[in-house]
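Narrative of activities, Objective 1.

The group set out to show that a structural description can be obtained from nothing but a protein's sequence at a throughput compatible with the screening campaign. Below is one input-output pair from the validation batch, recorded exactly as produced.
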Amino acid sequence: MRIPSAGDGARIGLFGGSFNPPHEGHLNLCHLALKRLKLDQIWWMVTPGNPLKDVSALPELAERVALCRAMVRHPDIKITAFEAAHRIRYTADTVAVLTRLRPRLKFVWLMGADNLANFHEWQDWWKIAHSLPIAVIDRPGSTLAYRSARAALALSRYRVDEADASLLADMKAPAWTFLHGPRSPLSSTWLRAQAEKNGSAGKKAR
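Output recorded for this entry:
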């Protein structure tokens, strides 16, 4: 429930989500971001729930945190659920709290390209984009999101060439880049569907 620690000037990637469940695709995204953005740490921020999604069937926060901790073995990826302690639901509030409490850290917001498509629906998305740099990582089916997404078009003049991605953490917002790389077909939605399918099959077999 605590905000992770880091030394002054550290370059921190912020990766938020419900992680229901966490999977290798999340790890692949973070490994790519650590390398290409030259980050010191990435914080997996396990959220109480996504305001844009139905959370009625969402597992308890502690359960999802435990699953993340069991999966992550990289020393520079930290698991935290501090948003729950601060009663935060929206990314804009998360960013405001972190920049106020950790003003000497250099934050970069990380998101999959599939989230770029609806970024303009996030509360105060324009404020988020003007508060910290953003790195969008390629996802299957969303490779061209940077050309068509409403937010991407609105922020097109602030896009940083992928070749300069390692400089992003030092840039003043708004600034964003799109990172191409190996793409995992896994998604939490697909994994939940498979688990439900297998569970139904097991019940029928009995």
